[in-house]
Predict the structure.
Amino acid sequence: MKIGIFSDIHANLPALEAVLDFLRDKVEKYVCCGDIVGYGPHPNECVKKISSLDDIVCVAGNHDWAVLGLEDLTKFNDDARDAVKWTKAHLTPESSSFLMGLDYKIAGPDFIAVHGSLTDPLDQYVKTAEDYIPSMKKQDRNILFVGHSHQPLYFRGTGGSVDFGAFIPLKPVEIIRNSKYLINVGSVGQPRDGNPKAACVIYDVAEGSAVLHRVEYDVPSVQKAILDAGLPAALGERLGKGA
């Protein structure tokens, strides 16, 4: 079985559609690591697209909870806070109901998916080996898939030590069964690793490998939609830089 795994759509419909088009004939199931909404101009369209998919499981992200009034907005910077307020004002009851139904963690046979970490599923950024160790101690599956930082990377834990790995597009990460892994699948709708292309991962369960893919989409159309919606201009500007 192959599973398409992605995260941090952030209400960017063209990016989401491009990723789903790329994955459609390549995977049997989907996993979303949260933040369907926030930042972008298409919250309801993205929720509808995700909720209409067969064979998908999705966890809540901090922006998903923020638009429901479940996160402290003082944690957010000014642009993110303005986007949360805009999204709350435009979210349909159907979209709110779907987001409210998301859990903060899901588990498969050999993986767990959360937005941030196992110690703080919504809000922790795992960027270093030291960040990962507390989650690794709680991890009872081979792989922990996360998003949140918008930066693809992976860590491999063996015994008490953790090694960092650069998650290079198209270069498979071999999943060794006696190790533990944290794999950050990057961001669909707002990458922050210097690459503006949308990110997604294909996890081949039988082969034991995870491959990062980058997918082009129409960035200028989303930048225009952000401005037309009255969202902060900086949210569109950074899309073109992947920053």
